[in-house]
Amino acid sequence: MKPASLLAELRNRGIRFSLRGDDIIYRAPKGSVTPELLASFKAEKQAIVQELLAEVNMDESGFDHLTRMLQSEGESEFRHPHSYARLVEPIKSKLLSRVGLDINFVRGEGCYLWDVAGNQFLDCIAQYGGLPFGYNPDSIWQALQSVRINQLPNVATQSLLDTAGQLAERLLQVAPAGFKHVIFCNSGAEATEVAIKLCRAAKNRPGILSTRKGFHGLTTGSLSATGSESFQNGFFARCDDFEHVPFGNTQALAKALTRSPQHFAAFIVEPIQGEAGIVLPPAGYLSRVREVCDRFDVLMVVDEVQTGLGRTGRLFACQHENVVPDVMTLAKALGGGLVPVGAVLCQPDAYSIRFGLRHSSTFAGNALASACGLATLGELTAENEKLVRHVAECGSYLLHGLQAIQLQFGRLVREVRGCGYMQAIEFDFDVLKSQRGLMPVLVDQDLLMHLIVSHLLHTHHVRVAPSFMSRDVIRLEPPLIAGKAECDQLLSALTQTLETVENGNAAALVANLIDLSADERARIESARVTSNTSVREIA
After folding, report:
1. Which among 257, 276, 217, 234 is positioned nearest to 20, based on CA atoms?
2. N or C: which end of the chain has fewer CB within 10 A?
3. 450, 451, 452, 457: CA torsion to nearest 10
4. Which string of DSSP letters, residue by residue, matches 412-443?
5. Cα(300)–Cα(286) distance, rounded to whole angstroms?
């Protein structure tokens, strides 16, 4: 039986598949797999992996689907009362407005946001890790005020920058041993660009390897390293000399390096893939990557832009395996949520005269950003990294709560996963296609995930985000300061929302998009859909 036919037969028997690197995870109903089918599956496993990878590439065309949808609507003017929606983000705001996500937040403090009506929302996105201490942290504002009070020059190119020098020293003190230089920049994408230039100049080779579904930024070079065609399409990326291998698979990495031993300068990898849907590699992956890179004389670049600075319950995610890369990129949390700042740490062998003479950035290492970076490290390292240990403890608490949700909604929740305050829920919406009413339509039109996010926001005042690369995944990344009370609020909101979904109550999911009274919303929310009940009857 051909791999495609075998895959179809297994699916017809109710088996669901997902990929982790080059390995297959599947869920099979009891008695659905005969010994003969199991033998065929094992014999054709690698071919089936390729079939699934091809499907993933097709599934990643969500941006193309949205592009075609918007193009089919023509060039009609987008009318929105807010100038930001009209003038800055008209395309995205048009989509967000359709599912009620175009909220104007006017105040933020700690883990919470407030809208113009005074409603309070728990933020469990934290700008994908960019707000380590939530909104408007006092210690970071004090650092900014100190720059003003002391009248420090913010930028003074080709001079000695005190605050930047102090931040570099502090970063090298708290980072894994071995790094010697720090290059400052203004964002995570720029940090990737710096890393690419560092490695190419040090090795005098053009090739850059990274992973499929990895995310390293949206500038041209970082987009080329980003392993997703859905982000690259239309921008004529990827550029020459960039290649991708499966995440979590060091055999594929070694094979690529064996094929072109003198071509590649570096391998760039996330300890946990964030944008892909919080995907964790197999245990020991980074250690094996370190060994492969050493064997082939290739620089190992670890992208800690999202995982770094406490997010996973360690100051740096590579510390979970005691791995020291040649280059490490940081950004997001380093600015304490107030000022954009990035940094690239490198070992001596990765720093060259060629790079040192020819690289610069106008605002890199400015006093405001550096002061924020120093204050951020101060918060994270205070009392023997008390806050980082708090993240490890509360992250474990949150994961256990999500695992309980998975047990409760076993047919709907395919997997929960994560580390520290970087977690995800992956759904299996196919189980809803047998329901009557609107729910199967929402699944087919790829609207259900966005309506779940909208329902959490409007009904339970909890803010989460879907993954753009994996459209059946919700990402959960609260501020590092969030405690068990915030975790309980999130878990309660998720439980109630999934009850609504499992009950087939599509009307409740769209109720916030319709002008209804509070009593009408409550009646719809409490309704339960049976096999003989229509959405019309509920609404």
Report:
1. 276
2. N
3. 90
4. TEEEEEEETTEEEEEE-GGGGTTSSTTHHHHH
5. 10
- What is the rounded distance in angstroms from the CA atom of residue 297 to the CA atom of residue 202? 11
Task: Give the tens place of pLDDT for each residue, 382-398.
Answer: 999 999 999 999 999 99
**Computed over its alpha carbons, how large is the radius of gyration of the chain?**
24
Amino acid letter, 425 = I
Give me the amino acid identity at 418.
Answer: G
Q: Tokens representing 196?
A: 């690419």
The span from the CA of 324 to the CA of 302, in Å, is: 9
d(C-alpha 205, C-alpha 475), whole Å: 37
CB burial of 222-239 (b: ≥16 within 10 Å; e: otherwise) equals: bbbbbbbbbbbeeeebbe
Is beta strand 23-27 parallel, antiparallel or unpaired with respect to 16-20? antiparallel
Query: How far is it, in rounded angstroms, from Cα 83 to Cα 403?
Result: 42
- Amino acid identity, position 123: D
Beta-bridge partners for 341? none
Q: Give the whole-angstrom CA distance, residue 387 versus residue 393.
A: 10
Rounded CA-CA distance 334/187 in Å is: 10
pLDDT band at 506 (very low <50, low <70, confident <90, very high): confident
φ, ψ dihedrals at 424, nearest 5° = -150, 155
**Residue 482 is encoded by which pair of tokens?**
């969030």
SS3 78: coil
Confidence band for 530, pLDDT divided at 50, 70 and 90: very low
Token pair for 192: 């990737």
Q: Residue 539 — very low, low, confident or very high, per pLDDT cuts 50/70/90?
A: very low
Q: How far apart are CA 461 and CA 134, in angstroms?
A: 16
* Cα separation, 402 vs 416, whole angstroms: 6
